[in-house]
Specification:
six-stranded mixed beta sheet; 12 strands; Rossmann fold; alpha/beta; two-stranded antiparallel ribbon
Length: 368
């Protein structure tokens, strides 16, 4: 039985190698997102089947045997073929689903895109369950019994009761003498991060554009969760007005109004000021749109908000522009012209799903 488990583990490792080999393919589609759990993701691997023995009769005459003439097309004799007929009883192609921890998936992503580890900025004190067993208590499991302290308590009780006999030094601990090791929780410095996903949901952002954003956000979150123990994610949508929504609404909401990008930046700034202090949090805003803004004046307002308020508070601000049939793409040009020299601002342009990997690398490749 042990040998079977070893072989199975080796096969699973081969499958994980296949995942690493095909990671670029997973970076451009949403196949993994629908299979995501809290700590792991189920990865479909086509055309790989777990090896096993099959027992049965082999009554075939041999390779190439049977009726038919040389040069005759297979499956077309007497009108046969064409893909029609009764349901068969043979098995089809198999797809193996392998569960991979999100932390392991992040490690694959880091190696594939050559991402550096992030050096956290914000710190805060939190109480953890870690620490050493440097405490003692009177109750606990037998596995944590403190033998020396138990014997000491029993010895003191024996002496104080006048039962100690130097000629016959015998100590028998009773229930009241039992002592157990206890682990004390202690505040330790730990890095925390907040991710702001902001997206234009006006009429010009169609289903394909939102799907690209959804894929990018999945991989960004996967990587940042591997870098920080404590992560919070805030979803903000905007047309002419911005509001905080849940994850489902973020990827499916569509409005018909205009586009005022500054509304999202102002809302993010308000949340940072009220809830996410820069000395406690590493702050990562990501904004996605097709590059249309309602006026040049509002773009100037966005630049001012970034330069004076958001960039000084953030580890890095990322703007991802998704090409659409209706978007002008002007906003990225304006940001690059006004703030292109500030390394805290990173912009990317995605024409189709093939550009997603490059966009993720540009966002996460600086290790900020």
């Amino acid at each position: 039985m042990f040998r079977i488990e070893v072989d199975r583990a080796r096969f699973r490792e081969i499958v994980r190698g296949r995942i690493r080999q095909d990671l670029r393919k997973y970076l451009s589609n949403s196949e993994l997102i629908a299979r995501q759990g809290e700590h792991a993701v189920s990865v479909p691997i086509p055309q790989i089947e777990l090896p096993r023995f099959r027992f049965g009769e082999n009554q075939k005459a041999g390779v190439g045997q049977g009726p038919g003439e040389k040069g005759e097309a297979l499956g077309e004799k007497d009108g046969e073929g064409g893909g029609e007929g009764a349901a068969g009883d043979a098995e089809g192609a198999h797809i193996l689903e392998v569960e991979v921890e999100l932390e392991e998936l992040a490690e694959m992503l880091g190696k594939e895109l050559q991402l550096p580890n992030i050096q956290p900025r914000g710190k805060r004190e939190i109480s953890t369950d870690g620490g050493r067993y440097n405490g003692v208590r009177r109750s606990g499991p037998d596995s944590l019994r403190h033998m020396r302290r138990t014997f000491k308590a029993a010895l003191l009780r024996t002496i104080s009761a006048g039962e100690w006999d130097p000629a016959n030094p015998k100590v028998v601990p009773d229930r009241e003498d039992q002592r157990y090791r206890a682990r004390k929780s202690a505040p330790v410095p730990d890095s925390s991060a907040v991710i702001f996903h902001m997206m234009d949901v006006s009429g010009s952002m169609g289903r394909e554009q939102k799907e690209i954003v959804r894929i990018e956000a999945f991989w960004i979150d996967t990587w940042l969760r591997s870098q920080y123990r404590n992560i919070e994610v805030v979803y903000i949508v905007h047309d002419a007005v911005a509001k905080v929504v849940d994850q489902n609404a973020f990827f499916h909401l569509r409005e018909s109004g205009g586009t005022k990008i500054s509304s999202a930046y102002e809302l993010a700034l308000k949340l940072i000021q009220e809830k996410y202090r820069t000395e406690d949090w590493n702050i990562y805003p990501f904004h996605y749109s097709d590059g249309d803004n309602w006026s040049a004046r509002d773009t100037e307002r966005c630049v001012a908000l970034l330069k004076d308020e958001l960039l000084p508070r953030c580890n890095q601000f990322c703007y991802g522009q998704v090409k659409s049939a209706y978007g002008s793409g002007q906003f990225k040009k304006d940001l690059d012209d006004a703030l292109g020299g500030d390394e805290r601002l990173v912009t990317s342009s995605v024409s189709d799903r093939g550009d997603i990997a490059a966009a993720i690398r540009s966002f996460l490749g600086k290790g900020r």
